[in-house]
Specification:
Layout: H1 2-17, H2 30-44, H3 62-71, H4 78-89, E1 115-117, E2 122-124, H5 126-136, H6 147-158, H7 173-187, H8 197-203, E3 208-209, E4 212-213, E5 226-228, E6 233-235, H9 237-247, H10 258-270, E7 280-282
Parallel strand pairs: 5-7
Antiparallel strand pairs: 1-2, 3-4, 5-6
Length: 283
């Protein structure tokens, strides 16, 4: 609890300092914050190897881990992975494909998303980039919580498996503001249950909420998108964020709203250096 209190105290200090002018001596330090965040989980779970945190509850609960390893011999997400590969290669009506929209033809780049786009001053996630690609080529946008988006991101994640998250915060006050906004959302309580994201994923990872074992926030996005047994299918990051709000009896935001994109930016940055393990599977 002392370590948690230290994190929350650092959060409060950094939130206050975010109102200071750029270049202030009190300017938030994401590098130091990420190190403290990581150290908190390493100390909380000393028997868990750092890279194992990307496996969520399976890294914390040995019985669940054994069941997962058996299931993963015939991955439940395999159908979505194949569909995503097919969709990715299928030409748009103008003859171009998703590969024309991304560096390295879209292969092995998942670890670089989300990123801060200086030209528009906003965070761009992989899901947003995929729909922008579609719209730039005369196609309609996909539903952010739909199966097709889940399949596409599953395929792109699979091509990056093992590559470490490499999220940048450029020397731009707007990028730091996006990081701060994501952090603020992560720690803000909401909904009828008065929970924040941190309530479950910083304070109580490894504990049960109903039948679910709560995952640690460290590495939580590395396994996305995920197949969830309760969904009976694959789910995008957008789907997970909206369902989390619903589960605490809060009002979900619009998928890919600025708050959700900034939250994804913040959480991804904190997991820099941990490997991409998606697509994943959870109960």
């Amino acid at each position: 609890m002392a370590a948690l209190a230290a994190i929350l105290a650092a959060l409060a200090t950094s939130l206050l300092s975010s109102a200071q002018p750029a270049g202030s001596a009190d300017r938030p330090d994401p590098v130091a914050e990420a190190a403290a965040f990581r150290n908190y989980f390493v100390k909380k779970f000393p028997d868990v190897k750092l890279e194992e945190f990307v496996n969520g509850p399976y890294a914390l609960n040995q019985d669940m881990r054994r069941q997962w390893q058996e299931i993963d011999q015939f991955p439940p997400y395999e159908f979505s992975l194949e569909k995503g590969k097919e969709l990715f290669a299928t030409p748009f009506r103008n003859g171009k494909t998703y590969a024309d929209c991304f560096p390295a033809s879209g292969v092995g780049i998942r670890q670089n998303y989300p990123y801060f786009d200086a030209s528009e001053g906003k965070v761009v996630t992989l899901e947003l980039a995929l729909n922008r690609c579609r719209e730039a080529n005369g196609e309609s946008a996909l539903r952010y919580v739909g199966d097709a988006m889940a399949a596409l991101t599953a395929y792109m994640a699979f091509t990056s498996r093992g590559k470490p998250f490499d999220i940048k915060i450029p020397d731009d006050p707007r990028a730091l503001e996006a990081y701060q906004n994501g952090k603020r959302y992560f720690y803000t309580r909401r909904g009828q249950l008065n929970f924040s994201c941190a309530t479950c994923h910083v304070q109580y990872p490894g504990e049960h909420m109903r039948a679910e074992v709560l995952a640690p926030a460290l590495g939580i996005l590395n396994a996305m998108p995920i197949y969830r047994s309760e969904w009976g299918g694959m789910g995008t990051i957008s789907r997970r964020l909206t369902t989390c709000n619903s589960q605490i009896r809060g009002l979900p935001l619009e998928p890919q709203s600025e708050e959700y994109r900034d939250l994804e930016y913040y959480l991804s940055y904190l997991s820099n250096g941990l490997p991409i393990s998606g697509p994943g599977a959870r109960p």
